[in-house]
Amino acid sequence: MAAAATTMSMSMSMSMCSSRNKHYKQQAGERSSSGSNKPPPPPAPAMRKGPWTEEEDAQLVWFVRLFGERRWDFLAKVSGLGRTGKSCRLRWVNYLHPGLRRGRITADEERLIVELHAKWGSRWSRIARSLPGRTDNEIKNFWRTRARKQKAAAASASSASSLATTSCSASSGGSGGSPQTPSSGRGAGTTSSSAVTESSSAPRGHDEDAELVDEAHTAAAGQSHPQQECCYTMDDQFWNDDITAAASYVVDGGWGGAGHIATAAPPWSPVWEYCSDYYSLWRIDDDDDYSKKMLDDA
DNA sequence: AATGTATTCAACCGCATAGTT
DNA sequence: AAACTATGCGGTTGAATACAT
Predict the structure, then answer these.
(1) How far: A201 CA to B3 C1' (Å)?
(2) What are phi and psi of A174, to 5 degrees?
(3) Is the CB of A138 less than 7 A from some atom of nucleic acid strand B?
(4) Please, how many CA atoms are within 13 Å of residue A219, restricted to the half-sphere of its CB?
(5) Is the pLDDT of residue A221 over 50?
(6) Tens of pLDDT along A150-198?
(7) Which residues 260 to 279 of A reach strand C, CB within 7 A?
C-alpha cells in the first residue's frame, strides 16, 4: 500500500508533462472553457473511457477524500472527471484504494483462494473479503491465469501420456489425463462442479476455468480445514482505516507534494464551476453524518 | 536487434440487487 | 407497490509488458 502510494506519487510527478496526459488536459480545458457562465445542465457529454491518467487519479483521490466512498455518480459529476460513477468506483476500489496490496499472490493466498473457491465458486468479491488488500478483480485474474496454466499443463501431460498409450495400447476412450489431474475430462467436469454448485449461488458461467477447478476442488476438499469466515472485510475497519490513509497520502504530497491538500482545491476542480455554491451541494443531505464528518475533516 | 507469442492486469459491460422516491 | 437510481458483482476484452525465438 505504501508502495502503491509511492508508485503513484512517483509516476504522478513523472507524468506531469507526459504526452499521455495531453489528451486529458485538452479535455479539461475544453470543459472549463465552456463554462464561462452558469452552464445549463450539460447535455450528457460523452463519458471518458480507457486508462486513467495520474491526474485523473489524483483528482479522484481528492474527491473521494472529500465526499467519501459513496455516491459515485454524484462524485463523478462533481469532480468533472468525465467518467461514470461506476468507472470512478472501480478505479478507486481496484487501484487507488490505499489499502490495496500490491505484488504477486503469495502461496498462502493462493491456498486460501483455492480453498475458498472450492467452497464458494467464483464469488470473487466474497473471496476477496478474506484476502486483505486483494480485490475481486485481482483474484479473478489470478484464477484465470492459474486455470489456463493448469489447463496447458494438463493438455501437455495428456498428450504425452496419450502418445505413450497409443504406442502400447490403442484408445481406452481418451480422457487420458495425468494421474494427478483428475480428468480434464467432461464427465468429471460435471462432478467437479459439485463444489461450485454446492455454493449457494452457483457461478453462472462454466468455461475453461471451471473445468480446471477440479484439481483445486478436490485438493481443497481433502483438507478443508475450517476457514474463519472472514478475518477482514473490505468494508469495515480495513476500509475505513484506509480513508485516513488516503487522506494522509494526499496530505503527504501525493498531489504535487504540496503537503496541504486537505484544505486546498484540486488542480482543476470543475465542481466550483459546476456548482458555485459548493456547500449547498452538501446541504442536499445535510442530515448525513458521514457527509458532515467528511466536511469537518476537510 | 527485431519480431512473434504469451501473460498480466486495468477497465468496460451487462445484469442483479438494494435503496429511494 | 411500482418506478427509478445507485451500487456491486462476475464475465470479458484489449492494451501493455515480458519472454522466447
Answers:
(1) 46
(2) 65, -145
(3) yes
(4) 16
(5) no
(6) 777 777 666 666 655 544 333 333 333 332 332 332 323 333 333 333 3
(7) none
